Amino acid sequence: MAFIIIDLEFNNLEDISKYKPNVFNENPELREVELDNEIIEIGAIKLDNYMQPITEYKAYIKPSVIKVLNPKISEITNIQEADLKNGITFKEGMDGLKKLIDEGDIICSWAKDDIIEIINNAIYHKYEDLSWLGSYLDIQEYSTKILGKKKSLSLKHALDELKIKVDTTKLHDALNDAIYTSFVFKRIYNSRAVKNYMIKDIYNMPALEIKNLNEYKIDKSKVSQKCPKCKIPLELEYELIPLKWRFVSLGTCSKCKNKIINELIIKRTFSNEEIYKEMYSFLDEIEYINYCDKVKKVRLKLNKVLK
Q1: What Å distances lie between residue 45 and 51, 52, 133, 162, CA to CA?
Q2: Which of 138, 192, 240, 268 could form a disulfide with 208 if both were Cys (CB 3.0 to 4.6 A apart)?
């Protein structure tokens, strides 16, 4: 068994008009692009079960969907047009990555985004040989839990937390990020603990975001809204309402009198099953009031839209 840590860089159209005001007039085909994020660089490192590096892989992918390199992406990644001009095809890139992976190996990445985009890009390019996508480990999720953090760590913050020296000019390069991820993983690797975070079926993991929360109808039968301490229903002051990437409700436990926020995150699997995850936190009086103010503002906006 080995661990293959993957990192990808993407090209997309986010904010591209700020850098290229005439881009859609000059490239009208970009108005109807069917792929949000096109893979333009693959980096990977393979570690044995002693956390020692075995081999590395790096490839630039010549874009065939979003053929204009977004200057914002270039600025972040330092990828240049010349790199992509000499790049290989998506199929060649995937075939090269596949060669690293043997039966029983674990695919890893920092957050699930890269795996999602491998599948999305493969579907678009009609690349059907993804049988090598077997067991999977989200190293971001593993690191966040092992280091006792409530909010998901960025790779940079994890490196800082573990006091691993970083050349920041080398971040956002696919291979370098894969290597830095391996440094984090090696520092906190525990063969027993890591088994609790492995996903056996990538296609049934909750990975896809619900994009328009304002229009989403919550299935109340999947929500408990109970005090995490007393296990009794909360007395809700505010029912679940969309707030940024999740739904939020606020209330009080009638038994322990704690003020509680319930954050509901809903994701879909690739097999289109919806997974509900509730996270409860106790709030002090000031935190509770601040959240109430945020929820009130969101409710006002929603009411105006509905009118």
Answers
A1: 11, 10, 16, 20
A2: 268
Q: β-strand 106-109 against 3-11: which pairing, if any?
A: parallel
CA distance 154 to 60: 24
- Whether pTM > 0.90 for this model: the answer is no
Give buried/exposed letters for 212-226 (b at 16+ CB in 10 A, else e).
Answer: ebeeeebeeeebebb
Whether the CB-CB separation of 79 and 41 falls below 8 Å is answered with yes
Q: Are strands 259-268 and 53-60 parallel, antiparallel or unpaired?
A: unpaired
- Cβ atoms of 37 and 82 within 8 Å: the answer is no
| CA angle in degrees (0–180, nearest 5) for 285-289-294 | 150
Round to whole Å and give the CA distance between 136 and 112.
9
CA angle 124–126–129, rounded 5-degree value: 125
Tens digits of per-residue pLDDT, 129-181?
A: 888 888 999 999 999 999 999 889 999 999 999 999 988 888 889 999 999 99
Closest CA to 33 of 94, 112, 128, 121: 121
Spell out the alpha helix ranges (H) of the chain.
Answer: 16-19, 23-26, 71-77, 81-85, 90-98, 113-125, 139-146, 155-161, 174-188, 191-195, 285-306
CA dihedral 172, 173, 177, 179 (to 10 degrees): -160
Exposed/middle/buried for 293, CB within 10 Å: 0-12, 13-18, 19+? exposed
Q: What is the pLDDT of residues 60-116, one digit of tens each?
A: 999 999 999 999 999 999 999 999 999 999 999 999 999 999 999 999 999 999 999
Give the amino acid at 108. C
Which residues, 6 or more positions from 62, have their beta carbon under 8 angstroms from its beta carbon? 84, 85, 86, 87, 88, 89
